[in-house]
């Protein structure tokens, strides 16, 4: 494919798709690989794939494989599902939550998301609402929610953290992908980590992934 070849020299836009959540999404060939970008950041696949893969490695592939279920808040085009199925070899139930129908469409049309439909349920709704109503408990909760390069403020509020604690199993993990572009956002992450009591949770931060990403891994001890 000529676009794929040319993308090794310069990114080639395959399709621009309007989004009510992120204004516009661009499916782009970059170094021979299809990725999804917004105006200011890589949104799915590409560098984000490297960040999410690192996050799963921090938790441990063997630990993830032994888990019974996973909740994904922020499905995007399905990069995390591909990693869980193909890289980690996790073969149990995944529940994914995604607000934006445009990015779900992109995942299905350009990234073969539907091939992971077995034991994978997509909930097209707001993540806050899903967590608020959720009656299930999970062994792993992956949070990867962005609106362009911004993160919704509710993600860092104590009320939301408390709801996450309620639906996380003992010995389960939260894997939280964040962006820290400035000192204010670095302080925001530290304040978020402080919401998890050290006698009940083991919290680790993994900064400077792909320069601005910081992964937080939180294990529930009791």
From TrEMBL:
Annotated signal sequence range: none
Domain of life: Bacteria
GO molecular function term, any single one: spermidine synthase activity
GO cellular component: cytosol
Short name of one Pfam family: Spermine_synth
InterPro entries: SAM-dependent_MTases_sf, Spermi_synthase
GO biological process: one example: spermidine biosynthetic process
Alphabetized UniProt keyword annotations: Spermidine biosynthesis
Protein name: Spermidine synthase
């Amino acid at each position: 494919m000529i676009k794929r070849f040319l993308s090794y020299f310069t990114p080639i836009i395959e399709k621009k798709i309007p989004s009510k959540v992120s204004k516009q999404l661009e499916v782009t060939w970059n170094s021979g690989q299809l990725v999804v970008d917004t105006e200011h950041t890589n949104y799915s696949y590409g560098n984000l794939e490297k960040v999410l893969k690192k996050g799963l490695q921090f938790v441990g592939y063997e630990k993830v494989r032994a888990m019974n279920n996973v909740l994904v808040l922020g499905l995007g085009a399905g990069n995390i599902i591909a990693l869980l199925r193909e890289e980690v070899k996790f073969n149990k139930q995944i529940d994914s939550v995604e607000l934006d129908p445009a990015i779900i469409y992109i995942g299905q049309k350009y990234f073969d998301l539907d091939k992971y439909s077995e034991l994978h349920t997509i909930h097209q709704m707001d993540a806050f609402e899903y967590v608020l109503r959720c009656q299930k408990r999970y062994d792993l909760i992956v949070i990867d929610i962005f609106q362009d390069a911004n993160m919704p403020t509710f993600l860092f509020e104590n009320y939301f953290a408390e709801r996450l604690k309620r639906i996380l199993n003992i010995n389960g993990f939260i894997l939280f992908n964040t962006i820290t572009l400035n000192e204010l956002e670095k302080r925001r992450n530290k304040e978020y980590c402080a919401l998890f009591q050290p006698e009940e949770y083991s919290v680790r931060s993994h900064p400077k992934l792909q320069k601005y990403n910081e992964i937080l891994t939180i294990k529930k001890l009791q």
